[in-house]
Amino acid sequence: MDIKDFKKFHETVLPEFDEFLTNKINAEIKQPTLRDAMLYSINAGGKRVRPMLMLAVVYSCGTKLEDLYQYYDIAGAIELIHTYSLIHDDLPEMDNDDYRRGKLSNHKKFGVGPAVLAGDGLLTQAFYWIAKSNLDTSKRMAAVRILAHNAGPMGMVAGQMTDITKEDRQLNEEELTTLHKQKTADLITAAITIGAFCAGHDLSTHLVEYANYVGLAFQVKDDLDDFGSEEDADKNTFPNLIGKDATEEKLRNLVKDALNAVLKEQKFDKNLMVSFLDYFKD
Amino acid sequence: MDIKDFKKFHETVLPEFDEFLTNKINAEIKQPTLRDAMLYSINAGGKRVRPMLMLAVVYSCGTKLEDLYQYYDIAGAIELIHTYSLIHDDLPEMDNDDYRRGKLSNHKKFGVGPAVLAGDGLLTQAFYWIAKSNLDTSKRMAAVRILAHNAGPMGMVAGQMTDITKEDRQLNEEELTTLHKQKTADLITAAITIGAFCAGHDLSTHLVEYANYVGLAFQVKDDLDDFGSEEDADKNTFPNLIGKDATEEKLRNLVKDALNAVLKEQKFDKNLMVSFLDYFKD
């Protein structure tokens, strides 16, 4: 493994992966409005953290850089799911966001009906990409199972439902942890564990622990980044519940726990997973 | 094969299958609003035509009645997908239907946000059910592939997008046929072909032809049933395009073509598939 730094890995793989995503959607989706709406959000400036984490795990397990393309379908499926969730979350009767990363949200650009369908299209196509990948059937099936479990009504969708139906009251710390776990951590955990499955790595509890801590750290960092903004005021977030300082300490502890977990990992090169944790120090 | 009549088959299998659907969702979905909203539409009086067609194919291929339960996960997945599509289609910025089968539509009962999420939950859980089924991995993978292809942005979702973006103009006959094929026929076709795959039947072109004719006949019958109603007036339907009589003739021809196709089928008992065609004579 030549690349030992996650930023470097990200920089190296991203351009080819971005091109893959756009080309594949362009080739497959013939309905013009649907294709445009799907591509609009896929190319709206996301950092591709989830698929890059998945590919980083595959790479850490010994796959060469030039062979990583074989895992792009599965990594792409994870990004399709993440993108669909953002489109539906932004809808007027959900979080009601007109902008995302400085661009109009999907429903402001295409209308609510098309945005719902663009989301439905991305979500369903994710499973098509996995089914059509060239990996072993058992690996593909594990990817379908983990992704559907963690992104569906036992995971991410459940978290979003709790979020929109509980906005009028303050959740307690345990409830908020469950919400964050489902809404954000579950898809991150899926990306990491799917990577390990696809690379043929015998999944260790250490890697699963790492994934869980990283996933939760993700949402806590997000809460901190948004803290004090107008939209943030009524939301169920850790800084609103326990204060900024205690939340910052919480984030440091999660990162430390993630580090300790991955350092126990015996079976693959830990460099990328360790260096990914720098993400939370920005 | 003791049951040779589709209505009898439907009557025999439905109670157990209905119970299976409710119990499984109740057991799996812990988020209370999400569980309620998913169950509300699952139990809103649907006839389960798609899963019953799938199970009828499995039965026709030689599976005993008492062994059919092994295929309920996959049949259930098809019903989850169908149900999600109804919830999203009814949304205000889609077809804007306040009622379905005499009951409040999902978003009128639970709100638009929860209805979007109930749909997302049903759609994603469909793939989880397939992944967790006890059938051979290769059969499960075929089910994922066919379902995602036919229900997603290359099939049903594309049809719905064409429908909501073209409502202001009259499609021509070819465009309307494509719309109906994607919006309705593709999921029916999926149900029949998945049944054949899961039963280990070497899929013949005859059965695929049958499935395609039956799927289109479904939407044409639906168009005829709704013809003359207030909501129907502006819609792209065959009666609005070519008149009621010509549409009735079209339906008769589709049923005849379906019959001719399935009669060529050599490898399984054709009785149920033939008797299913009575559905279009009501």
Q: How would you describe the overall organization of this protein?
A:
Chains A, B: GO terms for molecular function: (2E,6E)-farnesyl diphosphate synthase activity; metal ion binding. Chains A, B: Pfam families: polyprenyl_synt. Chain A is an all-alpha fold and about 280 residues long. Helices cover about 70% and strands about 0% of the residues of chain A. Chain A has helices spanning about 5-30, 30-40, 50-60, 70-90, 105-110, 110-130, 135-150, 155-165, 175-200, 205-225, 240, 245-265, 270-275, and strands at about 100, 105. In chain A, strands 1-2 form a two-stranded antiparallel sheet. In chain A, α7 packs antiparallel against α9 (about 175-200). The radius of gyration of chain A is 18 Å and the shape is globular. The interface between A and B is large, with 52 and 53 residues.
Low-pLDDT windows of residues of chain A: none
CATH architecture of chain A: Orthogonal Bundle
Instruction: Look at the structure and give the mean pLDDT of chain A.
Output: 94
The backbone outline of chain A, from C-alpha atoms, is globular
Question: What is the CA-CA span between the terminal residues of chain A?
Answer: 26 Å
Tell me the fraction of residues in β-strands of chain A, as a range: under 5%
- Largest sheet of chain A, described in full? 2 strands, antiparallel
Number of helices of chain A: 13
Greatest interface by residues involved:
A-B, 52 and 53 residues
Radius of gyration of chain A: 18 Å
Structural class of chain A: mainly alpha
* Broad CATH class of chain A: Mainly Alpha
CATH topology of chain A: Farnesyl Diphosphate Synthase
Order of helices and strands of chain A: HHHHEEHHHHHHHHH
For the record, what is the CATH homologous superfamily label of chain A? Farnesyl Diphosphate Synthase
What is the quaternary state of this protein? Answer: homodimer
Number of strands of chain A: 2
Major beta sheet, strand line-up of chain A? 1-2
Residues in helix, % of chain A: 55-70%
Query: What number of domains of chain A?
Result: 1
Organism (chains A, B): Companilactobacillus nodensis DSM 19682 = JCM 14932 = NBRC 107160
GO molecular function (chains A, B): (2E,6E)-farnesyl diphosphate synthase activity; metal ion binding
InterPro entries (chains A, B): Isoprenoid_synthase_dom_sf (IPR008949), Polyprenyl_synt (IPR000092), Polyprenyl_synt_CS (IPR033749)
Keywords (chains A, B): Isoprene biosynthesis, Magnesium, Metal-binding, Transferase
